[in-house]
Amino acid sequence: MSYHSGKDGGMLTGLQMIVILSSIYFLVLSKRNKIIFLFVGFMIGVLSFLISYFVAYGFLNYDDIYCYLFAMIIFIVSFHLIERRRETWKKLKVNDINN
After folding, report:
1. Cα separation of 80 and 29, whole Å?
2. What span, in angstroms and rounded, lies between the C-alpha atoms of 83 and 77?
């Protein structure tokens, strides 16, 4: 992916990078419902970039590397939280059927 630091300082390219990485991460690591997780990864990628952009701009005097690093940490953690929640929900559902 080419990096262009134009009037926006490369933020649109960074947004594209985070959204694509998040979508691919969710697609590759999901066990089922890959298309749904692709869209979830897209949405979480956008949200994680926006959150990290405001955090990096507000608290860290805006450094690009912190923005991208924080966005990647957010979407990785959110994927694993979603997966853990799904597994817990499945176990509870199985236990309810058995009781």
Report:
1. 10
2. 10
- CA 43, CA 89: separation in Å to the nearest integer? 22
Domain ranges of the chain: 11-98
Task: Tell me the C-alpha distance between 78 and 84, whole Å.
Answer: 10
pLDDT of 25 over the 90 cut: yes
Distances (CA, A) of 38 to 20, 45, 46, 70, 76: 10, 10, 13, 20, 14
Q: Which residues does 44 contact at the CB level (< 8 Å), separation at least 6? A: 22, 26, 74, 75, 78, 79
Residue 23 confidence (pLDDT): 94
Question: What gap in Å lies between CA 33 and CA 65, rounded to an integer?
Answer: 32
Can you tell me the distance from the alpha carbon of 55 to that of 62, in angstroms, rounded to the nearest whole number? 8
Q: Is the pLDDT of residue 5 over 70?
A: no
